[in-house]
Amino acid sequence: MISKRNLIFLGAPGAGKGTGASGILEHENLVHISTGDILRAEIKNGTELGKNAAVLMEKGELVPDEIVAGMVKARLKQHDCDNGFILDGFPRTIKQAELLEDALEGIGKKIDTVVYFDVSDDILLKRLTARISCKQCGKIYNKVFVPPKKENTCDDCAVDLFQRPDDSLETAKERLKVFYASTQPLIDYYKEKNLLTSIDQVEKEKMIAVLFEKLG
Ligand code: ADP
Ligand code: ZN
């Protein structure tokens, strides 16, 4: 069992945060909190929040800090998070990090480690634009790196795979720009708090092993 259990996964879109999270979750009873997934669920349910978020997400822009922080705060309060959690894709701005700190303080918790997934831009763009996933089970494939056994079909569910609208080349480039402008400052922010650990681009199996080592 890993000892560091209250985690933030930080990294550009496509850096492998989601893949890392599912690798950990196969062995550890942590709650996976992906703000992207929560927002996509809001869109699917046709909520007001979802409608507003969809416009921003399709352009690759960020949803306002207070809104995402509010969603995360509500989720962290639920008691299944007492065993530990992975924040995947949140915080994405310094403001969000500060709101998170307040929220955690309010429930007597703190972050144990921030894992930064360090991957070069050319790999990120290749991955993002080749990313396809299953609507039914959420499994993520990559046309280049992790293709499904049968073209464009989920190995597990046998349904068609789809590309997220924000994974087009144009939007992917915009998302990387937003990452460097808004999210990258968090690397130094967490370094100064002595919470940061980095993981370089490696193949999937190795990445999971390295992650487990770091979370000891
Ligand atoms: P990825 O990690 O591949 O970029 P996500 O699923 O995390 O994808 O996010 C998709 C989109 O959802 C983002 O481009 C952004 O518009 C919105 N989003 C997700 N998390 C946040 C957040 N913490 N703050 C603001 N917007 C967010
Ligand atoms: Zn599936």
Polypeptide structure, described:
The protein is 47% helix and 16% strand. The protein is built from nine helices and eight strands. The chain has a single domain (6-215), classed as P-loop containing nucleotide triphosphate hydrolases (Rossmann fold). The protein starts with 5 loop residues before the first strand and ends with a helix. The strands form two sheets. The chain has a five-stranded parallel sheet with strand order 2-3-1-4-8, with helices on both faces. Strands 6-5-7 form a three-stranded antiparallel sheet. It is an alpha/beta fold. Helix 2 (35-44) crosses helix 3 and helix 4 runs parallel beside helix 5 (94-106).
